[in-house]
Amino acid sequence: MKRRTALVGLGALFTGACSKVAESRAGQSLFDMAENWHMKAHRALANRQALAPEFTKVDISPVFKGNGSITVDSDIYRDQLSKGFPNWRLRVGGLVKNEMSFSLENLRALPQRSQITRHDCVEGWSAIGEWTGPQLSLLLDAAEVLPEANFIVFYCADILYGKRYYESIDMVDAYHPQTIVAHELNGEPLPEKNGAPLRMRIERQLGYKHPKYLTRIEAVASLDDIEGGKGGFWEDNYGYQWYAGI
Amino acid sequence: MRKKHSLLTRIWHWLNALCVIVLFMSGLGISNAHRYLYWGNAGSQPSEAWTAVIRFPDWATLPQRYDLAESRDWHVLFSWPFAIGLLVFWIAMLIGGHFWRDLRTHREEWKSAAIWADIVKHAKLDFTHDGAKYSFLQKLSYGIVLGVLLPVMVFTGLAISPGFEPAAPWLVDWFGGRQSARSIHFLAAWALFAFFVIHILLVLLSGPVKQMRDMITGGRDET
Ligand code: HEM
To answer: Tens of pLDDT along B99-123?
Structure first.
C-alpha cells in the first residue's frame, strides 16, 4: 500500500514537473527549437524541391474526409456555391510589384498540374486524392514578389470557432512544384467540405497547413504582426506547430 | 568475469527511460486524436480500419488532459535525445565491446535444452548466471529491445512524418505505407511497454536495492 502511494506520488511529481516545463517560456522555446531542428533536418536530408510521393488512380480513397471547417456559413457563399462561384476572386498582394486578382476562369486558363497525393491529418488519418490547379509559383511570378518577402500568407472565407482561418508557409514551400492552388478534386470541382472553390496543397506538411475557401494571398516579410503572430489559425489559438512536417 | 555497468550504459539507461516514458505518454495523447488504425497508405473511415483502440484516460497521457498540440510538442522534443541516444549507444556498444562481450548470444545457448534450463531457472526466481553478465533470456530480450523495438520506433516515427518522406520514400514503402507505419509504431510502443513491466518486475524480484544502486553507481567488477 505504501509502495503504491509512493508510486502515485512519483508519477504526480513527474507529470507536474512536465506541466511546469510546458507552461514556462524556456519550455516553449525548447519545443520551438526541436520543431525547427526537424524542419532543418528534413530539408537537409531531402532536396528542398524533393517531391512528396504521388500515387495512381487505383489508390484514390473512396471517401475524402472533410475536417475542420466543412462549409462557409454565409449567404454570399451559399449563393456563389449554387452558381459555380462566378464572382469568386483570389487576390494576390502584399510585398509584390503587381497586385492581382484572379477569377476561377483565369486560374483554369493557366497551365495546370494534377497530382495524386496522400493527405495526412494531424489527428492521424490519411486520404489519397487527385488535385488539380495552377502552381502557386505561377501566380507569385505573375505578381512579381519583392525580395523582402519571406513568407506567403493565405486568407480564407471560413470562420472556425469564431475566428477567421488563415495559414502561412515560407518561400521554400511556396515555390515547391507540388504547391498548387487546387480547384478540382478527383476530376470534379472541389466539394464544399474540401474547400470549394479553392484550397492550397502544401504536400509535405499536415492537413491544417492546406487552407480551404481561399480568398487572398499575401507576401510578407514577417508573421509577427499578422493575427496572433504565430502564422496560422491552429498555431495562434491552439499551440500547434508552425512547421507541420512531423 | 562480470564487469560493472559502464558510465555510458548508466547514462543511456536513465536518459532512455525518461525519453521512452515521455514519448509513450505523449503518444497515448496523440492516439486519442484519432483512435482508428489502418494498414496500407491511407485510411480515414472506421470502415477502413483494422482496429479501433480505447480512449486512453487522462492520467495515462502527457499532458494529463486532451491537448494534441502539447502532446505533439513533447513527442517532437523527446524524439531527438531518444534517437540520438540510441545511435550513440549502439556505436559505443559495437566499438567498446559491450555488445560483443555481453549481449551477443552463442550457438550453444540456442539449444532447446539450454533455453529450457534458463526458463526453469527464471521460474524458480534464480537469477544467478555464472560467468556471463547476462543470462540467455536476458540477452534475448535486451537484444529485441535494443536491436528491434527501439530502432523500429525511430524508423516508423520518421516514416509517419510527411516532411521526412521525400528524403526516404522507400522507408515508408518498406513498412507498407504511412498508415501501416503508424500501426506498427503503435504496436511496437505497446511491446516496449510490456518489456518495461517485465523488466521492472524482474528488478523487484532480483534484489531491487542492489540493482538500482548498480545502475546508478555502476556496481563492482565481479569474477
Ligand atoms: C524518434 C522517435 C520517434 C518519433 C520521430 C515519433 C514520431 C511520432 C509521430 C509523428 C506520431 C504521430 C502519428 C500520427 O499522426 O498519428 C507519433 C505517434 C505516437 N508515438 Fe511516436 N515517435 C517516436 C518515438 C516513440 C516512442 C519511443 C514511443 C513509445 C514508447 C512512441 C509512441 C507513440 C504512440 C503511442 C503514438 C500514437 C500513435 C497513433 O495512434 O497515432 N513514439 N510518433
So the answer is: 999 999 999 999 999 999 999 999 9
- A15, A19, A24, A25: CA torsion to nearest 10: 100
Q: Where are the domains of chain B?
A: 7-217
Q: ipTM > 0.85?
A: yes
Looking at ligand 1, which residue's alpha carbon is closest to its atom 23? Answer: B157
Quick one: which of B157, B30, B26 has its CA closest to A14?
A: B26
Among B63, B76, B172, the residue with its CB nearest the CB of A18 is B63
| Collapsed DSSP state (helix, strand, coil) of residue A166 | strand
CA-to-CA distance for B135 and B202, rounded, in angstroms? 13
The stretch A126-154 carries a mean pLDDT of: 98
Q: Which residues in B lie closer than 8 A to residue A40 (C-beta atoms)?
A: none
Amino acid B133: pLDDT: 87
Say if the Cβ atoms of A204 and B30 lie within 8 Å.
no
Any idea which architecture B7-217 has in CATH? Up-down Bundle (1.20)
**Is a pLDDT exceeding 60 seen at residue A113?**
yes
Residues of A in contact with B185 (CB under 8 A): none
Taking the CA of residue B161 as reference, the ligand 1 atom at the shortest distance is: 10
